[in-house]
Design a protein that fits this description.
Layout (H helix, E strand, L loop, with lengths): L13 H4 L1 H7 L4 H20 L9 E2 L2 E2 L7 H7 L8 H26 L38 H6 L5 H7 L1 E8 L5 E4 L12 E3 L1 H7 L6 E6 L11 E7 L2 E2 L14 E2 L4 E2 L13 H9 L2 E2 L3 E6 L5 H15 L3 E10 L1 H10 L3 E6 L4 H20 L3 E7 L1 H11 L17 H8 L2 E3 L7 E9 L5 H10 L5
Parallel strand pairs: 12-17, 13-14, 13-15, 15-17
Antiparallel strand pairs: 1-2, 3-4, 3-6, 4-5, 6-7, 7-8, 9-16, 10-11, 16-17
Helix pairs in contact: 2-3, 12-13
Amino acid sequence: MRYASVPVWHPSQLKRTGPQLLINSGFLPKAFVRGIALRRRQAKYKMDSDVSESPEVQPTLDGFAEPETQAAPEAQSEAPEAPAQSPADSEGAVGSETQAAPEAQSEAPEAKQRPQNRQGNSGQGHPRRRRRRRGRRRRKPRGQSQHHYSEEELKAQLPDDPEQLEAESRPLGILEVLGSGSGFVRRRESGYTPGNDDIYVGSRMIQRYGLRTGDELVGIVGRSARPGKSPPLAHLARVNDHPADEATRRPDFQQLSAMHPDDQLVLECGREFLGQPDYTNRVIDLICPFGKGQRAMIVAPAKAGKTMVLQAVAEGIVKNNPECHLLILLVDERPEEVTEMEQCGFGEVIASTFDRPAERHCQVAEITLERARRRVEQGEDVVIILDSITRMARAYNSVKSGSGRTLSGGLDSNSLEKPKRFLGSARKTDPTQGGGSLTIIATALVDTGSRMDQVIFEEFKGTGN
């Protein structure tokens, strides 16, 4: 823009030239011309609003006109002299002025009142916005949970006898710690997902005992303060079948050293459940034996009999290795397969059928993994039978927000992060560090005609140990 030889423009000249002409001609910058136009509109608005209040000074485009009082002497000199009034006329005039004075005084406030807007403000321009101060209507202190219970309230609900405390303690469920520091105990009846009968665990109790997501709690439940409020955990007796005081001294799963499995899981048991020779477990023990801490995959197409193989493996683990804690996780499977697996009676079946949303599949898988990790931290051996890792990856692909990079088959590049974390958790930890072992036996689908399933299998086929 050109700033040299800029003439001095007055706002009154905008009426003749116009702001756009000044901008196009290059005499003045665009922002400066727009500012002049804005001040012109403000002056016009002020002239319209103040005409009834201060008629002495009238704003114009060229400035402010001189008040009318300055021109009054000239008008008086030019006006002819008025004839003198008689005393009667003067008295009548005075009387009329006194009678009109109250009416003028009563009309004066009405004339001085400014028109109110919709919000009741009489100010000029935009009405003042009424802001509500933060924290004015807050019913509870900042950072305090809606399920807060004091220690005095919880202690008042407990018996004084320690033996009675132990007798009244019962298994509650699996703990899920939230981002706020507090948590809830999820029940097995609801599939370890949020429900109406969940038990609230305060943040102080979680910090005192070092509780983590996946801990299995045993204790006493207190009374709820009001209807619709989750009952609190009043007393904690055991954590993962160990005394609650020992939970603070356990190691972290991520800090445990991973080692190759060297302790075999013998599976051949005779198949007493079906009354048939145990050929399946016999072949597995001879060709591809499983060990504690194994990361194994059973690859087969759909309807090939994977369920029968998993039932045989579950029976062999329960009968030949009673020290192992068996968890059977069924993700996105048919309800009939879930019922059939539960009727076998081997281990604990945790299922999320295909009629459930993908968010539930992911939540059930994560809490099952955390539950197994907590057992390993306390030196136990855990076995997870997963059916199937392909459907789990599909669920994470539909839940995971898109990163903008899509692999072949419509698979997001970040959707396999959690399934890899699940399968990669299988390991044998160093016994000197106090850890146990986690064995994961998963199934993978192939020859389904889906490019996504093939990509998932290619990602996991080289992760076994």
